[in-house]
Amino acid sequence: MTVSIEDTSTPGSYVRTGSARIRHGRHRVLRSSPLLLLAEAGVAFAAALVLPALARRFKLNPLDRIAQVSGLAAIQFRFALIGLVLIGLVVVSMRLRGGRFFGLTARFASAGLAGLASGFVAAGAVVALLGTPWPMFGLNGDSGRIVEWAQAVAHGLPSPSPVYPPLPLYTLGYYAQWFHDGNTAYAFKDLQILGAAAFGPLVYLAWRMLLSPVRALAFGVLPAFALIDAYKPYSQTVLVLLVPVLVAMVVQLKRSGTSSWPSLLLKAAGFGVLLGALFLTYSGWFLWSAAGVVVAALVYFPWRTGRLRGLAFVGVTAAAFAAVAGSYLHTMLTVGQDTKDYNFRFDNFTDPAYFLMWRTDMPGKVTEWPLPGEFGGMDLFAVVMFVCVGVALWLGIRKPLVVTICCMFASAWVMRMYIASHMYETQTVQLYTRTNNQLLYCGLILGALVAHLVSLRLAERRTAGGGPAAGEASTGGGFPNPRAAVIGALFALLFLFGTVSSSMADRYMPAKENSYRILPWVSHTVQKLDGSCPKFAPGGTCSKDGDQSWLHMIQ
Question: How many other C-beta atoms lie within 10 A of the C-beta of residue 143?
């Protein structure tokens, strides 16, 4: 089966395969066999484990800055080599047997790059924690609480915090029993690394519900890397998965009016189960997104083509969600209402309209913040982002992909301002600063989708004008060779991912400073269970709780 590397979900779009020209109808998309989808997922997850496995063999002191730089360069070297091999295979496939396997090779290369990119960040975490069995931050802060709560639920006790998402706790508890004799602290180190590694493949597969391989990599996975986290990877992973899942659900709702009953019910149940699992993993993003998704659902509900089927889709999705996460939802609606957040941190003293960077309670070395910008206090990045949001809506006003993300952006913005406006009166924070991540992610996606929408318009003009088939040279003003475009995109993405992943990995290199670097630093100062110190403990000293200087750094 030939797999196209172009987006085929656009109504009325054309796809060229070899010399054939195929026109797709409004709801017809190119489908892949389940075996190919499994193979694609397998490539992504396997690639994600390569760099962390190699990093375990590095011989360096992670507390030495020169060693950290050498470690990052060593990971980058391996990342680049493997990535160039993948791109080389795509180039060869373009020439081999008339390009018959080009689409398949590009597909696997895209999946491999997604895995390699998050594997880079996970490998950075391996380097940062070399010589210590403890997770980032040892038994302090959120890390210590998660370890304690997971220990309780693994022994059949109720969670000490009923409002905390239960799935990470049960996952950690059972993983500790299977692989670490019940030691949830040592097990959490593994899951921090594995969670960071799985980030890329999971995001890639989620966006594959909506976009072709290269587009999913460029327009879905790349923006997500602004949020990748090796400390508590599950919270950010839920956000970057929730956006494409909700968009795909709205797309299916729009199509439900003309769908067959078996297909409709099966997809609705699948979305309900998937959303329930995400809600059990981290529920906060649902609060910021809910109003926007409801608006998008009302816009694309099949009012004329099949109200009954639309209602059935919504009902089955809600029922499946309730079956998976109903109990936790009830807890959040009852006990959760009484949970108050009184901890004012650095970002709570920042202009609420500024969301481009979330500094957390460990902001690092900061002078004036936000930094003064060129346009009314805003920097050029913010101006370009808002312009791209408008252009995306202009070009994609009829596309659920664009409209749903715009609705989620607006929903998070309104919720942010509502909660912040009551902050003085209630003296509570209610985690509103975490909307930074959703606003940034949605804005970056919409910016990337401008390139997606423009490329689709150019492709439509080219096919309408009878341009050359894929693989043929362009002889004039037509759209350039799409296969060469794929290779160019993969080549650029390789180095862009390498740069971003290195920066995000460097964020967690141990240092005694007021930033996330303190998290792995503390891990090297906590006494091991046998009473000895970690291999690279500073000065060869350690203590039961580890270095507690971070208590004076929180802002």
Answer: 23
- CA nearest neighbour of 257 among 210, 295, 313: 313
Task: Calculate the alpha carbon distances from 379 to 347, 361, 372, 386, 389 in Å.
Answer: 18, 23, 7, 11, 16
Cα–Cα nearest to 269, from 279, 258, 261: 261
Cα(377)–Cα(391) distance, integer angstroms: 22
| pLDDT at residue number 469 | 47
Among 34, 358, 37, 11, which residue's Cα sits nearest to residue 216? 37
CB of 433 within 8 A of CB of 345?
yes
- Could you read off the pLDDT of 438-488 as tens digits, one per residue? 999 999 999 999 999 998 888 777 776 655 544 444 433 445 688 999 999
pLDDT value of residue 3? 37
User: pTM value?
Assistant: 0.90
Q: How many Å from the N-terminal Cα to the C-terminal Cα in the chain?
A: 57
433: how many CB neighbours lie within 10 A of its CB?
22
DSSP string, 253-312: HHHGGGS-HHHHHHHHHHHHHHHHHHHHH--HHHHHHHHHHHHHHHHHS-TTT-HHHHHH
List the chain residues with pLDDT less than 50. Answer: 1-31, 469-478
Closest CA to 138 of 491, 519, 478: 519
Beta bridge partners of 377: 373
